[in-house]
């Protein structure tokens, strides 16, 4: 019987994408490039300047937390697989091969892996990036399996990094590790493919759950409407879509959020004081949904999070968690906003816009790309995989970092 790496490598090597797969790949390319370009002025660009292309592009692409998500694996697939593919000179087929590997490894890891505190984007991402790069380099199926095994030592990342630059940087490390592993396999490095199976079991996964049937990316990908953790897309949408307008924030006396416990797993910041922490705070998500016409980039800055009215509102939020569930869209979210005069407003939502069950329209995608920068729509007009690398190289140039010369003894 094939090992997990061998089964995935055979599938990736033989993949023939259909029209639906290719449409998903093109949407993923454009979405990932747009959110990466939107972060051109973020301080992480300077911080990551000395990293290789895959690491730098992935880290910057993830820092705004506006990139897509595979719901079944709770993994940000494209922000790993697009940079790894582009850094290795690949195309849509290479992206889809890695994305499919990442989805399947993430599903084999299961919810218990994520719920225990692992960052599945990194754990599933390193071997997936290896598959992207290996297919892009034209490696054999044996070499693809070797590359995935060589990426296992880098398959780490924890949720405690959420709300700091560590989150996006560890995503960059996973993408870079995969590209490095593929190049080593191309150069003749050897590895035991069953290392992937052994690692899966060590971190709570089940290699036997890997299923290479179905579309390239089973379940599709969720597109974010707001630049924050996916766990916040539903409560923000519920308040914006269903609350009567206008509600004066100063009149709010109490807010109760009722949701399955699994849906708040990544929301570790309850009293945020930075923009990055606000992206992982249920309390701040409620505040920005009540305060801002459209919670966008400006809503997740240090200044916005520390607004007195935002800090007042987030302290009024009580989160009641129901037991059960095994993904970020389990059940539904119910929110009650109580005003000072006793008036109650109840809202509830199961699927937020942009989720696979409520896919974004062409107009939604056009609006999102436009929000990412005045020049972004023109830069990404009819962009393909070859030109995409050129766009990133031009707008996110790296720096050659030399070791400082030692002082003479």
Automatic annotation (TrEMBL):
Membrane-spanning residues: none
InterPro entries recorded: MmgE/PrpD_sf (IPR036148), MmgE/PrpD_sf_1 (IPR042183), MmgE/PrpD_sf_2 (IPR042188), MmgE_PrpD (IPR005656), MmgE_PrpD_C (IPR045337), MmgE_PrpD_N (IPR045336)
Domain of life per record: Bacteria
MF terms (GO), sorted A to Z: lyase activity
UniProt domain MmgE/PrpD N-terminal: residue ranges: 58-196
Entry's family note: Belongs to the PrpD family.
Species in which this protein is naturally found: Saccharopolyspora terrae
One Pfam family here: MmgE_PrpD_C
Protein name: 2-methylcitrate dehydratase
PANTHER family (alphabetical): 2-METHYLCITRATE DEHYDRATASE, 2-METHYLCITRATE DEHYDRATASE-RELATED
Domain MmgE/PrpD C-terminal: 226-376
């Amino acid at each position: 019987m094939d090992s997990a790496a061998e089964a995935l490598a055979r599938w990736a090597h033989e993949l023939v994408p259909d029209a639906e797969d290719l449409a998903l790949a093109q949407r993923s390319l454009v979405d990932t490039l747009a959110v990466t370009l939107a972060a051109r002025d973020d301080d992480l660009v300077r911080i990551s300047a000395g990293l290789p292309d895959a690491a730098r592009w992935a880290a910057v692409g993830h820092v705004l937390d506006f990139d897509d998500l595979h719901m079944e694996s709770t993994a940000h697939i494209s922000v790993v697989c697009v940079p790894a593919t582009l850094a290795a000179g690949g195309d849509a087929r290479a992206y889809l091969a890695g994305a499919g590997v990442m989805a399947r490894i993430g599903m084999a890891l299961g919810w218990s892996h994520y719920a225990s505190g692992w960052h599945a984007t990194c754990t599933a991402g390193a071997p997936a990036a290896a598959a992207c790069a290996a297919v892009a380099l034209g490696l054999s199926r044996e070499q693809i399996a070797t590359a995935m095994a060589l990426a296992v030592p880098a398959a780490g990342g924890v949720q405690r990094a959420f709300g700091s630059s560590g989150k996006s940087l560890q995503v960059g490390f996973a993408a870079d590790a995969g590209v490095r592993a593929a190049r080593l396999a191309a150069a003749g490095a050897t590895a035991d493919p069953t290392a992937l199976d052994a690692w899966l079991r060590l971190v709570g996964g089940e290699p036997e759950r890997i299923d290479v049937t179905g579309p390239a990316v089973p379940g599709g990908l969720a597109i974010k409407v707001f630049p924050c953790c996916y766990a916040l897309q539903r409560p923000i949408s519920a308040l914006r879509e269903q609350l009567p307008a206008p509600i004066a924030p100063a009149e709010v006396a109490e807010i109760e959020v009722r949701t399955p416990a699994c849906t708040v797993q990544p929301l570790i910041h309850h009293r945020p004081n930075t923009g990055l922490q606000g992206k992982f705070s249920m309390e701040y998500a409620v505040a920005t949904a009540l305060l801002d016409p459209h919670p966008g980039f400006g809503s997740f800055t240090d200044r916005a999070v520390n607004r007195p009215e935002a800090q007042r509102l987030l302290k009024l939020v009580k989160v009641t968690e129901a037991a059960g569930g095994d993904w970020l869209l389990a059940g539904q979210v119910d929110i009650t906003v109580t005003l000072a005069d006793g008036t109650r407003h109840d809202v509830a939502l199961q699927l937020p816009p942009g989720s696979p069950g409520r896919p974004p329209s062409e107009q939604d995608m056009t609006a999102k790309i436009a929000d990412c920068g005045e020049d972004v729509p023109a830069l990404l007009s009819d962009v393909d995989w070859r030109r995409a690398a050129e766009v990133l190289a031009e707008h996110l140039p790296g720096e050659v970092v030399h070791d400082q010369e030692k002082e003479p003894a």
